[in-house]
Each structure stands twice: as structure tokens, then as C-alpha cells.
């Protein structure tokens, strides 16, 4: 399997560390860039053109949903997996109109890698913690 280049956009540094530690067992998943706000995230994705972006919704400067719309314009082949604490049905549905998947951070230890695998295969992924809204 070839290496998947990933940009992580999240303002919570311990979450970015969690993702990095999760990927230690997966040499095929490589974090090539990080950003702590939505504007910087869009710039990093535009520069790096990764295969996947892990994107929070509650971001400073530009929220994740608006950032995802801009990412779709500047990097149309990049898959978008939202990773958020937010369990609001309306927000999740709005995110899924733009993105490829949605992982609730509370379920990330079991859902993150499954979500990544699904969206990289062109499938949609919704965290089981949100399954009641589908």
C-alpha cells in the first residue's frame, strides 16, 4: 500500500498528538502538515495537496465547515474526514454534505482508523455515536 499523506487541522494540540501516536503503528499513514485554525488549514492543504485532511469543526478564524468548502475548491481530490466533539445532528448533516466522513472524538480510539480506511476507499463514514441520525 502506498503512503497516504494527511494534513491535520485542529486547534487542540493534545488531539493532534493523539493522532500522531495512533499513526505510529501505521507507516502507510503520514502526517505531512498540521494547522491550528481553519485559514491555516486551507493554506496547508492547498500547498501540500494531501490525500486526506482530518478536520475539526470548531476552529478559530474559519470554522471547519467553511474551511472544507474552500478545501473542495483548491484540492478537489483531497478526502475530508471531520473529527469533532460536536454531536449535533444538524451540524453533522451539514458537515457530511461537504465531507466524506464524520468521527466523534469520544469514539476516535475505535473509529478513527475505520473512518480513514472508509473514506480513502471512496465510502462514507459516520461514527456509530451519530448513527441515530441517519
Fold blueprint:
Blueprint: E1 4-9, H1 13-23, E2 29-35, H2 38-48, E3 52-55, H3 64-74, E4 79-84, H4 89-98, E5 101-104, H5 108-120, E6 125-126
Parallel strand pairs: 1-2, 1-3, 3-4, 4-5, 5-6
Task: Determine the fraction of residues in helical runs and give it as a percent range.
Answer: 40-55%
Spatial order of the strands forming the largest sheet = 2-1-3-4-5-6
Largest sheet: 6 strands, parallel
* Rg from alpha-carbon coordinates: 13 Å
| CATH topology title | Rossmann fold
Low-confidence stretches: none
Estimate the mean pLDDT confidence.
93
Task: Say which CATH homologous superfamily is assigned.
Answer: Response regulator
Residue share in β-strands: 15-25%
Number of domains: 1
Number-wise, the strands total 6
**Count of helical segments?**
5
The succession of helices and strands, N to C, reads EHEHEHEHEHE
- Return the structural class: alpha/beta
What spatial form do the alpha-carbon principal axes imply? globular
CATH architecture annotation name:
3-Layer(aba) Sandwich
Termini separation comes to 32 Å
CATH class: Alpha Beta
Describe the 3D structure:
The chain has about 130 residues and is an alpha/beta fold. The chain has one domain: Rossmann fold. The protein is about 40% helix and about 20% strand. It has five helices and six strands; from the N terminus they run βαβαβαβαβαβ. It has helices at about 15-25, 40-50, 65-75, 90-100, 110-120; strands spanning about 5-10, 30-35, 50-55, 80-85, 100-105, 125. It has a six-stranded parallel sheet, with helices on both faces. α3 (about 65-75) links the parallel β3 (about 50-55) and β4. α2 packs parallel to α3. It is globular and about 30 Å long. About 40% of the residues are buried.
Amino acid at each position: 500500500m502506498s503512503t497516504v499523506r494527511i494534513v491535520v487541522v485542529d486547534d487542540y494540540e493534545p488531539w493532534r498528538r493523539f493522532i500522531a501516536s495512533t499513526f505510529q503503528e501505521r507507516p502507510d499513514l503520514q502526517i505531512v502538515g498540521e494547522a491550528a485554525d481553519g485559514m491555516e488549514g486551507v493554506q496547508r492543504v492547498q500547498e501540500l495537496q494531501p490525500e486526506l485532511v482530518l478536520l475539526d469543526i470548531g476552529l478559530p478564524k474559519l470554522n471547519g465547515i467553511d474551511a472544507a468548502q474552500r478545501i473542495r475548491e483548491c484540492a478537489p481530490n483531497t478526502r475530508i474526514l471531520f473529527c469533532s466533539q460536536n454531536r449535533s445532528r444538524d451540524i453533522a448533516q451539514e458537515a457530511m454534505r461537504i465531507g466524506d466522513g464524520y468521527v466523534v472524538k469520544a469514539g476516535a480510539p475505535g473509529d478513527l482508523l475505520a473512518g480513514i480506511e472508509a473514506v480513502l476507499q471512496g465510502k462514507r463514514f459516520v461514527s456509530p455515536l451519530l448513527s441515530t441520525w441517519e
